[in-house]
Amino acid sequence: MAWTGDTLALLEAYMNERDMRDVVPAVVDRNPLLARVESKYDAADYFLGKYAVIRMKTAVPYNVAPRVEAGDVPLPGQHAFEAMRVRLREYTGSTGITQNEMEQAAGQPLAAGVLAEEKLADCIADMRRTLNMELGGDGTGRLARVASWNGTTKTVTVDNTIADFGWSGCARIRDGMKVDIYTVADITGSSAWTVKCSGVTVSNVNRALGTFVVSGSTAPPADGDFVFLSNSVTLTSDGKFSSFNGCQGLMNIVDDGATTGWGSGGDTNNGSWYGTTFQGVDRTLYPQLQAKILKANDWGTGTAGTPASWDLAVINDAIRWVDEEGDGDGDVSALYMNGRMRDCLMRKAANEQNPFVTTDDGKIVPGMYIEQFRTSNGKLLPIIPITGLPNNTIYAVTERDFKLYWPVKPSWYKRNGQIWAESPGARNMTYEAWLRTVIQLGARRCDNCVRIEDLLDTE
Fold it and tell me: Which residue, 95, 115, 225, 267, shows the most beta carbons closer than 10 Å to its own?
């Protein structure tokens, strides 16, 4: 997208506008998650400018019963409410253009003004990509678990799996990302973490091998260390855990808080790292904050954490549990999954359902689930492929219960009224632009969502 904001006064001497249709983008983000939840945007209910507030009804006095002749009516009861304070999160991104770049671009096909526009557009794309990834995660910024380190090539090999981590390998790691790597002691603030890499840049991501290369100053990461999106964790002055800084994500919302999902190996209960805490309260005390988690031993005779054979009835049963049996007046509105699971669902539909359908004029034509899933009760649900969601997993979600707080939409920080400003000190002769947003994804309730795991994807 071309930038159409303020005049780039600092670059006026080099401006030479041209058509950018032949500029080939390096990265295109096709993740629709942010666009899906953006319709749930809510600018109200802010508390002290620091929190978003969701008011949860915690007690409803049900007292309707047969009346005894000549007896009094049941005593009235009192409703009770709890305020969930959802901490807002700030994200920033930056881009720059050097004096040398401007001078070299002057009079060339890619002029300085066009180059500046491209840099701004790329910064916006980076913000969108990061927000999509964060909204699909568990709110901690964790990305992978280290298995080994090659100090010669600075290659990290990871070994996290869906069963013990929530997703496998490098599913949530992208070239160009900045990451931190820690030896993680605990998230209780009892012991100090060890910083191995801080703000290093990722390249050469190989999903098949579960490897990536880092550039920048590093200490050798070791087996069991954890990879985080940079700046996702705040440590105290003595190096102990203080807080997670990321936006609450889908994997934290669609959870029951029953396990911490520490991912230390062999843990088949891959809950959110937030554990029992959800939006500032203990979610295990409130049934409406506990999503249903289905594993192979819940919907079949398999073992939790091991993908097993399944059929479409597994999804239909989960949807019925929300729409017909749940207490939240649920209405599942979409199925979220990654592209591989979407392909698997298409094959299931072709194998289990009649691959031919009758049209209105009586003709018989081939038919297959591609964009929508028709439930056993006849409801059509859109199938939303979301990059970075774990494989072997489908989320059945009631989107009306999501609540996106976005008091500060992505906007450029201006100095002296300009987006571009000269960098200080050692970065002299570089012009910088900073993009900023404040955002949080909340949920009014979680029990209208279901996470179905252990779905074999090769059938």
Answer: 225
